[in-house]
Amino acid sequence: PMAAFVGSPATGSVAFEGRVDWRAEAEGTSSGRLIIPGLDFTSPAGPVKGLRGTVDFTNLAPLTAAPGQRLTADLLESAVPLTDIALTFGLDKAAVTIEAGDLTVGGGRIRVEPFAVPLDPAQPITGVIVLENVQLGQVIAGAGFGEKVNLDAVVSGRLPFTSDRVNGVRISGGSLAAVQPGRLSIAREALSGLEAGGGGEAVPPGVVEDLAYQAMENLSFDILSAEVNSLDEGRIGVLFRIRGRHDPPQHQELRIPLAEFISREFLNRPLDLPSGTGIDLTLDTTLNLNQLVGDLLELNRARGGRPSAPSSTTP
Prior knowledge:
Elements: E1 7-23, E2 26-43, E3 46-60, E4 63-76, E5 82-91, E6 95-105, E7 108-112, E8 115-118, E9 125-135, H1 136-145, E10 149-152, E11 154-164, E12 168-171, E13 174-178, E14 182-186, H2 207-217, E15 219-230, E16 235-246, H3 258-263, E17 278-288, H4 289-303
Antiparallel strand pairs: 1-2, 2-3, 3-4, 4-5, 5-6, 6-7, 6-8, 7-9, 9-11, 10-14, 11-12, 11-13, 13-15, 14-15, 15-16, 16-17
């Protein structure tokens, strides 16, 4: 079962050597060593390249390994390429203890703080994912949102999570923040429920909303932060707070003749949001995390020529 994540095709080599001693007057002892010089295989998350390492077991029944065991991999070809993967762990009869784990993605690093994975599947898992200088735009594009959202944001932050059989993976109190200025462009069709104020009751419907759409199509920001929390039914909510300015490719100005200003006739025609207009934006977004993960796993199965997972039916 512990090797169930290794799928076909697999190329490379794996060796195991073990020893079991029985003594009439004492309890028997056992030990073993798993040696992986290099292994490429297909995992549920995508093809893995260059898995290697040595694991020393201090007992074979139950399977036990002292702290400090280390495995590395060159690449996981997922929706976003993950490289330089390293995992340090120990194993006892109750849990796999993850002492350290990190990888490179989007030009930065993602690591996990130490946590335990109980061998009893009924027990929950609790941990923290830490992002350090990760280009969030590459992650969003890899998840399939690149056609509607173009983001240049290098972020750091923490994502505390829990996982159990009933609720799946849930994030609570997650926070991200940009470490440098960046840009955001969101296509209009990707936005729904837009609320924009400040025009006054006499402004015709749609004028302020159109200016808000323009602001989000070409936004340069100095400050970007996000609160991340799981919602019901497998959804995850991300509340962005962004402060910046309108920065279209071509410089824009808004000139209104005095007569139009007095008569307010200018409100009846399209208006260009002037370049440099200050923007203070709160953007509340949600996505179905369970469906997204399922879609990505299905994509990896299709790439590997494996059959689709059977769909669940309600009796």
